[in-house]
Amino acid sequence: MAPVSDLEMMLLDRQVAEWKARKIAELEAVVSRQASTLAAAAPKVEFFDTVANSKDAITMRDVAAALNLSGWGRNQIFAFLRDRGILDDRNIPYREYQDRGYFRVVERTWSDPKGETHIALTTLVYQKGVDFIRKTIQEPVRA
User: Which one, of 111, 94, 90, lies nearest residue 103 by Cα?
Assistant: First the structure.
């Protein structure tokens, strides 16, 4: 039913203005909550960006500790990555995964009781690789 008098038009206009004011207040509250959430997350985002761009590499033991997944230790992660074709049977990452910046292989020397020097290769994981491992573990198995 259409308003028929100026008074009815003014009343309707006032109701629309009040409705608009309520909607603006609701939206301002949402924006305020989002801004507060973003402000609270800022240090976490900064930390993640710093860590993700880090050039430091960590051991697989430290990866397991960082991921903190129930039932996943260093050996389980190595076995999983071997099964996925990411590491070879000596736990050395294939070149493709090293080139992606996930892993670094370092040489260490050690001496046996006879005094002979040996070379051992150790796989280290960059932060980018930790994220890759986490995502790979969490992705569903494809049939």
Answer: 94
CA distance 138 to 50: 23
Q: What share of the chain is helix, strand, coil (3-state, %, to 5)?
A: 55, 15, 25
Distance CA 55, CA 128 (A): 9
% of the chain exceeding 70 in pLDDT: 87
Model pLDDT for residues 70-79, shown as the tens digit of each residue: 999 999 999 9
**Residue appearing with tokens 């590491």:** 87
Phi and psi angles of residue 83, each rounded to the nearest 5 degrees, phi first:
-60, -30
User: What does the alpha-carbon distance between residue 103 and residue 58 come to, in Å, rounded to a whole number?
Assistant: 9
List the Cα angle 104/110/112 in 5-degree steps.
Answer: 145
| Residue 101, pLDDT above cutoff 90 | yes
Confidence band of 50 (pLDDT split at 50, 70, 90):
low
Gap between the Cα atoms of 52 and 70, Å rounded: 23
